[in-house]
Amino acid sequence: MNSAMEWVETVGASVEEATEKALDHLGVPVEEAEVTVVAEPKMGLFGKVREPARIRARVRPLTARNKDERRDRRRRGGGKTRKGQGGPEKSAVSHAQESERAPEKATNVDQGGAVSAAREDVPVETQAEVGESFLRGLAEHLDLEITIERRQADEMIEIALDGPGIGILVGSRGSTISALQELTRTVVLRETGAARAMIVVDVGGYRSRRRSALEEFTKRICAEVVETGSQRRLEPMNPADRKVIHDTVNTVAGVVSRSEGEDPSRYVVISPQES
Amino acid sequence: MTDGGTADEGNFADEADGPVSEGDYIEEPSGNRIRGGMAAELLTYMVSAVVADPESVVVDTKETRGGVELRLSVAPMDMGRVIGRRGRVINALRTLSRVAGAREDVEVSVEVLG
After folding, report:
1. How would CATH label the architecture of B37-112?
2. ipTM > 0.85 (yes/no)
3. Which of A111, A129, A169, A189 to mutate to test the interface with B (most CBs of B within 10 A)?
């Protein structure tokens, strides 16, 4: 997936605002993004923003992790152990010292001992398996019989759930799918300490159907914007839908898109490209 | 006399048993027997996968007028993980707990005990 490697540059009244926009555009949570501040905002009189904050961000690539994290390469499967401060497995006395030198990784490191430290090379396959087994367990707790299909392309993992009665996991406008995806991403991050692959969860083919419908819709709107020369404001959408819109607009010449407003009523504006 | 006395005591104990056990066993043996049990078990499963200290995860159920309230507590260091950035994790947990509730026809809400 090429777009996963691409940088986006955004501006905002503050670094936070610019970052929000970028994350929105990339469709990933902040943990999965690499963010660089290009320029801090310059304030004028009365707290007015004279020059906006400017940041660059991209989806954190799978391979480019810095060396300090290349510590403990033991494989997964140590089983659940007691957790605790900075909790590498207790047996690893010599490693314990090392990981203390990387306190910033503590949040990932102490995940039930499943993985004792972030490695730079948690395979996409492993991340996908962790995500899949979490979803399987979840379906079991709901007494749902499901089948799971997994597709992997470079740094993207799609986990598609299907089965009788799967509809209860869709929710209105896919809100339950989004919840599943959010949790799956969180769990993979905790378990592997390195959810750098982008995980997408689909239920009953909802996302792919929605994606094609949105793409069609977006192309229509783009054509209108080009024709009339005036911008169009779309209805509020969730981040996943907004990403589809942004991606589609990117493929059409003469139009640009941006998001405005705050979640959950954040919406996309498609406007003619200036100049 | 002695016989009668024992019998009486026995009866008395039997009668007293009902109400007492109801209160005592409300969170007991098979979770599915309580209203919202499926939601409570699902919530426990999900939260345990998210936190660093799964053994400290406790979910109590409380009957409310509208349905069932799930009261979640986790180790203090895990509070941030359970809430997530802008409450994204807790909102996802709520959404899925409600789905489980709907399976049993129970309205479920989730509270995090600080």
Report:
1. 2-Layer Sandwich (3.30)
2. no
3. A111
